[in-house]
Design goal:
- By secondary structure, the chain is of the alpha/beta class.
- The chain contains 9 helices and 10 strands.
- 59% of the residues lie in helices and 17% in strands.
- A 4-stranded mixed beta sheet has the order 1-2-4-3. Strands 7-8-10-9 form a 4-stranded mixed beta sheet. Strands 5-6 form a two-stranded antiparallel sheet.
- Strand 9 and strand 10 form a beta hairpin.
- Helix 1 packs parallel to helix 2 and helix 7 runs parallel beside helix 9.
- The N terminus is likely disordered.
């Protein structure tokens, strides 16, 4: 009897010690989450030359008291906001937009679905507990591209256009190397919708035309024809696809939906060059 009694006491001591360790570990995790959030905020403010502050809204009350683990998850997920903001600040236009239009970030819980909203300098981010986070960062980034404004236009116009122009330059440089030419390529941005910019459609579809020109350069005759008759490529969008070549300018308009642009442009060039 005495031995069983001592064993019970020892077991209680062990269990009690384990509970204390678990509490300490949980507290350490919560402290770490909030510390990492503070680091993310500081990093974003350096990158953007901004002074954004962050608040965590009170965790939900479950029965008696506040669930501290919910606050820890909120702090962890709140980093998604700043992970989305930092890449935007690679351009001067985006930095200016962030500084002027985001003063505070507030993170909390939404029992229905993740949500983000920007109003009067406050970016409000609601998470859904237990939901995977990998899509949230992209959701926040897309939202900011749509709702931060520069010169009366969404930030996406200022951010994505340079990326598209760089992609176009890379594509035409490869073509010039193959063809032995010095053709330049540009976009006609008029009429290109913002959704097409998000999906990077301009460089994708213009790439089809550039690839068709490159395929002409499979032999000396083709390279000579391109060198003599093509000095510039202009790409744009139209409701109905069109291709024309005149005065050294290959003008290609895509509907950003057709799957056979490359073949159609190649056939056109084979007939007119």
């Amino acid at each position: 009897m005495k031995s069983r009694f001592l064993a019970a006491i020892l077991g209680a001591i062990v269990l009690g010690s384990g509970a204390t360790a678990d509490i300490g570990t949980a507290q350490d995790r919560r402290t770490s989450d909030e510390s990492l959030l503070a680091t993310a905020v500081a990093s974003s403010n350096r990158m953007c030359a901004s002074a954004i502050t962050v608040t965590l809204t009170p965790a939900s009350v479950r029965g008696v008291g506040v669930d501290p683990d919910e606050r820890a998850v909120t702090a962890r997920r709140c980093r998604d906001v700043f992970d989305a903001i930092r890449p935007l600040c690679r351009t001067a236009a985006a930095r200016a937009a962030v500084v002027a239009q985001i003063k505070q970030v507030s993170c909390g819980v939404n029992s229905e679905r993740p949500a983000v909203a920007l109003e009067n300098g406050k970016l409000d981010y609601r998470i859904e507990m237990g939901l995977a986070t990998w899509e949230d960062r992209q959701m926040i980034s897309d939202y900011l591209l749509d709702h931060l404004v520069v010169g009366g236009k969404p930030l996406i116009v200022q951010v994505v256009r340079p990326l598209e122009e760089a992609a176009l330059a890379d594509q035409v440089a490869q073509m010039n190397q193959r063809c032995g030419t010095s053709v330049v390529a540009t976009f006609d941005w008029a009429g290109i919708p913002e959704q097409a910019l998000k999906s990077r459609a301009p460089s994708n579809y213009c790439g089809h035309a550039i690839d068709a020109v490159e395929r002409i350069c499979v032999d000396h005759a083709g390279r000579d024809a391109v060198a003599r008759q093509v000095s510039r490529i202009v790409c744009g969008r139209a409701d109905k696809r069109s291709i024309s070549l005149g005065s050294g300018v290959l003008d290609f308009r895509s509907d950003f939906q057709s799957s056979d642009d490359r073949g159609v442009v190649l056939e056109y060039l084979q007939n007119v060059l």
